[in-house]
Design goal:
Elements lengths: L1 H26 L9 E7 L9 E6 L3 E5 L7 H9 L10 E5 L2 H4 L2 H7 L8 E3 L8 E7 L2 E8 L8 H14 L2 H4 L8
Parallel strand pairs: 5-7
Antiparallel strand pairs: 1-2, 1-6, 2-3, 3-4, 6-7
Length: about 180
C-alpha cells in the first residue's frame, strides 16, 4: 500500500510540474517589436494556374516580391512541372515601398490569430492545391506556419485572412494581375 501511495504522489507531482510549466509558457504575452518586423508570405504552385511567389515586407515599408523561388516541398516541385502557368503576370523580382503605417496594422492581426501559439503546419490530405507559408520575424524570434488546405486540417480561418492581409498591404496584386502603375 505504501508503494502505491508513493507512486500516486510521484505521478501527481509530475502532472503538477507539467501543468505549471505549461501555464508559465503561455502566461507571458508574446509581444512583438513593430519596429523590427519581417513578414513573409510564400504561395506555391498548384496543378492549375495558382500564382507562385514570395513576398517580404519590412517594418519600414520595404517590399520584395519574387517568383524566383525554390519549391517549398516535393509537392510544389511536382506542381511546378505540370502547372498550366506560374500564375503571375509580371514574374521576376520586384522591389517597392508601401507606407510604413500600412505595415503597422499587421502585428495586430498576428496577435488576433495568436500566431506564436499556432501549430507549425496545417496540412489536409487532399491534392492539387497550393501551399501558403507565413513567416514572422520579430527581433530574435521567428515562426512559420504552413497552410496546405489548412482550414480542413483545423487551422483557424483567421490565418487565411492574415495571408490575404499580407498580400493587400504588400500590393502583390500589381505583379500577379497587373496594374496601370506598372506600365511605365
Amino acid at each position: 500500500m505504501m508503494g502505491m501511495q508513493r507512486h500516486i504522489f510521484t505521478m501527481m507531482a509530475i502532472w503538477s510540474a507539467v501543468a505549471l510549466a505549461s501555464t508559465a509558457c503561455n502566461a507571458a504575452p508574446q509581444t512583438m517589436d513593430p519596429g523590427k518586423l519581417t513578414i513573409t508570405l510564400t504561395r506555391s504552385a498548384c496543378y492549375g494556374a495558382c500564382p507562385a511567389y514570395k513576398v517580404t515586407i519590412q517594418s519600414d515599408g520595404r517590399v520584395q516580391f519574387t517568383t524566383d523561388t525554390e519549391p517549398v516541398d516535393a509537392v510544389d516541385a511536382v506542381h511546378r512541372q505540370f502547372a498550366i502557368s506560374r500564375g503571375v503576370l509580371f514574374p521576376g523580382t520586384h522591389e517597392d515601398r508601401v507606407a510604413p503605417e500600412a505595415v503597422t496594422a499587421l502585428p495586430k492581426q498576428f496577435e488576433d490569430v495568436d500566431f506564436w501559439h499556432l501549430k507549425d503546419e496545417y496540412r489536409s490530405f487532399v491534392t492539387d492545391n497550393p501551399t501558403q507559408i507565413v513567416t514572422l520575424v520579430s527581433g530574435t524570434r521567428q515562426k512559420s506556419v504552413i497552410d496546405y488546405v489548412g482550414v480542413e486540417a483545423g487551422m483557424p480561418k483567421t490565418v487565411q485572412r492574415l495571408e490575404d492581409a499580407i498580400d493587400q498591404v504588400a500590393g502583390t496584386d500589381r505583379w500577379v494581375r497587373g496594374s496601370p502603375a506598372l506600365i511605365p
